């Protein structure tokens, strides 16, 4: 008897494998490409980016200016449409949405916090009124709105500023109110673009703390774009973006030290994508003058990478 699978079975297995990528993730980017075309010039802002974020996870995106962080965040926010690939957020397919679905996605599923507080808050409304505003749009009753706004401002540590207008608050307070606004309608995801960009370090840490509380207490998946070098201690995972691709990850784990005390350990990894591609850190490749090609060797527990010396032999 021939036990070899037929073509239909092989296709079924391949399909089943494909659907497994990111099946349980809250955010899935698979080979995401975004090309901007302006006056005949093409800029490839994202070139095959892969990213998975789990439900309830708090992730920071870091990377040099122009690496594609804002492009990615705008796509995840439903404000921009990728050129190719897969982008799924809370089960919504961002490449295949009608205008109406996109609007619903932006209103109900994601909350935003932008760097400029002026973009987050209406200047003529008090903190509490700002938090109530999205709930009014969603048709929630007045009593319910009031109590939820008060609760959220309290959670963000700005309950005592409920009656203040944005101009009467400090930058850090405004950003904490902005987080309360972003979570008012119970979104599944919060996206924050440089939320501490205009703040000093101490105030920035308070804003990260508020984002952390929203993430932990409300269970909302959180993605933050930041230049803040101290961010790794505040989030579960830091994802480095280089040239439009995820290139490295810093994972934060809590372990016990020799005396049984909890300590936070952050370990840096290079990202190996599904095609087997790996970005070697520039400092490593330039230290050994590696370019164009390298020699690889499989060892029992690691892979060796050597500079290509074949030119030297032929000289
Ligand atoms: N609307 C646009 N039209 C053309 N090119 C764009 C546009 N938006 C971004 N780009 C280009 O795409 C690339 C990625 O830009 P992006 O703003 O995503 O980077 P970034 O990592 O967020 O940078 P920064 O930290 O400076 O905000 C850059 O080369 C940028 O010039």
From TrEMBL:
PROSITE patterns in the cross-refs: ABC_TRANSPORTER_1, ABC_TRANSPORTER_2
Name of the protein in its database record: ABC-type lipoprotein export system ATPase subunit
Family matches, as Pfam families: ABC_tran
Superkingdom, taxonomy of origin: Bacteria
Keywords: ATP-binding, Lipoprotein, Nucleotide-binding, Transport
Residue ranges constituting the ABC transporter domain according to the UniProt record: 27-268
Signal peptide: none
Record's GO cellular component terms: membrane protein complex; plasma membrane
The species this protein was found in: Actinoallomurus bryophytorum
GO molecular function terms listed in the Swiss-Prot or TrEMBL record: ATP binding; ATP hydrolysis activity; transmembrane transporter activity
């Amino acid at each position: 008897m021939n036990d070899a699978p037929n073509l239909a079975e092989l296709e079924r297995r391949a399909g089943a494998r494909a659907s497994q990528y990111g099946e349980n993730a809250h955010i899935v980017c698979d080979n995401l490409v975004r090309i901007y075309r302006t006056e005949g010039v093409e800029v490839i802002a994202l070139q095959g980016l892969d990213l998975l974020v789990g439900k309830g996870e708090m992730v920071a995106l870091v990377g040099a200016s122009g690496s594609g962080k804002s492009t990615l965040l705008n796509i995840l926010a439903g404000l921009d449409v990728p050129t190719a690939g897969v982008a799924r957020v809370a089960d919504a397919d961002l490449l295949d949405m009608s205008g109406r679905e996109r609007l619903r996605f932006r209103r109900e599923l994601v909350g935003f916090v932008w760097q400029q507080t002026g973009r987050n808050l209406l200047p003529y409304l008090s903190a509490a009124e700002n938090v109530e505003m999205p709930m009014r749009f969603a048709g929630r009753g007045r009593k319910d709105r009031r109590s939820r706004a008060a609760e959220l401002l309290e959670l963000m540590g700005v309950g005592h500023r409920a009656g203040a207008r944005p101009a009467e608050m400090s930058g850090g307070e405004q950003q904490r109110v902005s987080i309360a606004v972003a979570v008012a309608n119970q979104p599944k995801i919060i996206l924050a673009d440089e939320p501490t960009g205009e703040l000093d370090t101490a105030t920035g840490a308070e804003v990260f703390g508020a984002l952390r509380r929203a993430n932990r207490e409300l269970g909302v998946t959180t993605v933050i774009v930041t230049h803040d070098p101290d961010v790794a201690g505040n989030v579960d995972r830091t994802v480095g973006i280089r040239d439009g691709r995820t290139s490295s990850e810093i994972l934060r784990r809590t372990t016990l030290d020799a005396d049984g005390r909890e300590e936070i350990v952050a370990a840096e990894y290079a990202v190996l994508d599904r095609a087997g591609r790996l970005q070697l850190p520039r400092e490593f490749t330039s230290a050994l003058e590696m370019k164009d090609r390298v020699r690889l060797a499989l060892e029992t527990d690691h892979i060796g990478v050597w500079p290509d010396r074949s030119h030297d032999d032929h000289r």
